[in-house]
């Protein structure tokens, strides 16, 4: 069952006079409209809340997973940079995140930090709200607004460990240590390959500089750039919803069911700090509606979900249970073209033909359009009656178990 | 009796009855004749070529239908059989349904693509499972999606998924009953899957679809489809029109 056979049926109703391009365009609108009228197409997705932290080696474009150390209490066991320019660390998660908390054990000295995210094609500059002060020990926070074009994927050219699934949302933090800020030197001349700074003394004139007179060679104290963290925590609380989604039936943070909560008259009044609150497991979810629909958990969970091959929820033997701290999303949506059941394909064909028959042009035939619309109406009512018993959950009001 | 002979005699009969009989009566007689003839060859349901004759008769316009390619007729007949089977809940089947330990949800469309509605489910030890809306389970058990035990309830998540509560603590093979969608009719010697008693409905719906697509007799086509499916036509009722003062 496919778009092709549905459109062939529509063309037949139009005596092959339909505009193929217009029919193809109308097809998407018709499927969405019908799915809203007949909301039975369900999806169940299991989403891992796993996140990962590891070292980034620029020369070999390699990621070294260090997530275990980032989560345990071992002090100073998460290197975040090296003495080599553009090394650093990568932060990845199955969900979108907007806050990373470091507990720095050994501070870095100087250095220039570059924050980028992977947009599916290249690393792009990340606009940050707060950046961590890596020159100080203790808790430091990186926060930013997740970019709309942030994409989940395996960054091109990056080598991951053999058993590591790199299909995550990535942020890269690189550190340039070769050009530390040199205070008091206004005319930085060059940085040599041997890691010495060659600088003119203050007040030197142009002639002296050209002749090399009075230049001072200062060794770089790269050893001070041993940036280490005790823990790094990524708070991944945002999960993109599929484009085909119509409505969410329920969300579980396995094994707990979450309560849906509106923002303006719910969370803002109930928990004013809901955007930044953290807990081991979330209790509520809300939906961000924008260019990209997102599911937001609150409080932001700190427990790590189980990383597994996704999706693990379809087919025989069916949904493979739940993994602790992973998300289970049950929703209604618009069926994908390849998944059209036979009865739905008929509705799509009739409604698409009606759309074309209604359009100005050589196929305009209002009587046919009205007849097909009437037919679709009747059939949808018939189908709804068919699912009366099965579909109770589609209209049942939701009441939180927390309010029983 | 060979099929060609049957068709020949039926065709003669059609020519004869066209003049003297009402269409509905002719359809019934044709159906009876067709069923009897083809029953002699096999105990299976009516073949599509016999349905073709019946629809042709019902349309009362052989020229129009004969100009339609067989693929068109097969598609409309397929749709008609599907709608009639769904409307009158005709194809009820009982099927084995494996339940797996720790697995609360099952994608029905993967296992039984033609299954549209689940009516009953019974565990292998004979215990029936009650169908409930899944939103009700949270009132019984906040951990309804993870509680293990012998399943007692079934629920649907939309059209595609079937869930059981409690989540099976052991593998089992349950028995599931439900309504099936008829398979597509792909050739003129394919056979309908629904019982002969419902063939007049398939004839009416097929003829209605042919009228919409080929004969451009829209109102009549929709009326036939609706009648065949036992549905009211869309639009304001006569009572509504009377209230609005537009009914005669």
Overall description:
The complex is a heterodimer of chains A (404) and B (248). With 404 residues, chain A is α+β, with helices and mostly antiparallel strands. Chain A folds into 2 domains: 3-47 and 239-394, no CATH class; 51-178 and 224-235, Jelly Rolls. Helices cover 22% and strands 30% of the residues of chain A. In chain A, strand 7 (112-118) and strand 8 form a beta hairpin. In chain A, helix 1 (3-13) packs across helix 2 (20-37), helix 2 (20-37) crosses helix 6 and helix 6 packs antiparallel against helix 7. Chain A is elongated. The relative contact order of chain A is 0.19. Chain B is α/β, with parallel strands linked by helices. In chain B, 46% of the residues lie in helices and 18% in strands. Chain B has 10 helices and 9 strands. Chain B has helices spanning 3-20, 23-39, 48-59, 62-67, 70-87, 108-111, 137-140, 199-215, 218-229, 238-244; strands at residues 92-99, 105-107, 115-122, 130-131, 148-149, 153-157, 161-165, 167-168, 172-180. In chain B, the strands form 3 sheets. A 4-stranded mixed beta sheet of chain B has the order 2-7-6-4. Chain B has a 3-stranded antiparallel beta sheet with strand order 1-9-3, with no helix packed on it. A two-stranded parallel sheet of chain B has the order 5-8. The termini of chain B are far apart. Classes of the chains: A alpha+beta (404), B alpha/beta (248). Chains A and B meet through helix 1, strand 1, strand 16, strand 17 and strand 23 of A and helix 5, strand 2, helix 6, strand 3 and strand 6 of B.
